[in-house]
Amino acid sequence: MRKPFVAGNWKMNKTIAETRDLVSRMSLKLSEISGVEKVLCPPFMSLLAASALLEGSGIGLGAQNMHWEEKGAFTGEVSPAMVKELCGYVILGHSERRAYFNETDEIVNRKLISAQTFDLTPIVCVGETLEQYESKLTREVVSRQTSQSLRDVSPAFAARIVVAYEPVWAIGTGKASNGLEANAVAKDVIRPALAGLFGEETAQAIRVLYGGSVTSSNAAEFFSQPDIDGALVGGASLKIDEFAAITESAAV
Ligand code: PGA
Fold first, then answer.
1. Residue of 96, 103, 166, 242 marked active site
2. Which of 12, 79, 91, 218 is at 20 to 30 A from 235, Cα to Cα?
């Protein structure tokens, strides 16, 4: 039985002051919802403020990225040790990181191995571009991203990994995929790739989320699918009622 999981990816939105306001109001609402693992991922600058406000709330805190090295001469980067001081989770390989910051599967994999070392629960993103989707390359692309980004970690750690299937064409576009199509990718592409890495039992234990224009109107369609265990939410995670409604509909 996989516990449902909903994470809010705030991306590059909200100052520290705005984060304090949003987190305090949001946590009041989210705390009332049980039966789902809840995680907020504000920008690095706001993690300290958010962590203080979330203490004891049962709501997890995640970073949106990190470097793989513990420390050193990497100007402008944030290390896993720094993330670990405040967070239990980290998003890795988001398509915006892959597209704008040249993150490859190899880089995502280094970060994943580092997450294992620093005992952080990773939310690893995979998903095809519009061009790949239209060329019917979804299966090939998502299978490769999954196999290469998630390799070389222990099966015990693997069971903790959360995979987010986020078709790039659905992110921030208002054009979500649909439940059946997303479920088919989770079931026939992502889980077999996970089974190839870690064995069938672990593949069945790993949570697979859908992400891309999730709203309170379409969330239930995704959550009713047997191989989709929750959502990674972008835009709608900045709206308290929307995000609470999405979280509520994932709860069991
Ligand atoms: P969106 O973003 O919900 O705004 O489409 C999802 C994501 O990028 O994780």
1. 166
2. 79
> Considering its fold, how many domains does the chain have in total?
1
Query: With pLDDT > 70 as the criterion, what percentage of the chain qualifies?
Result: 100
Residue listed under structure tokens 């990674």: 232
Q: Which residues contact 218 (CB under 8 A, 6 or more apart)?
A: 176
CA of 73 to the centre of ligand 1 (A): 32
- DSSP β-bridge partners for residue 209: 164
Helix (H) or strand (E) holding 196: helix 191-198
Pocket test for ligand 1, best of 9, 169, 242 (most atoms within 8 A of CB): 9
R_g of the chain, CA atoms, integer Å: 17
Q: Which numbered atom of ligand 1 lies nearest the CA of 235?
A: 4
The predicted structure's pLDDT at residue 1: 86
pLDDT at 105 over 90: yes
- Residue of 166, 167, 177, 172 whose CA lies nearest to 218: 177
State residue 63's pLDDT score.
98
| Separation of CA 166 and ligand 1 centre (Å) | 8
Give the range of the structural domain holding residue 43, as residue numbers without chain letter.
5-250
**166: annotated active-site residue:** yes
Q: To which H or E segment does residue 5 belong?
A: strand 5-9
CB-ligand 1 contact for 248 (6 Å cutoff)? no
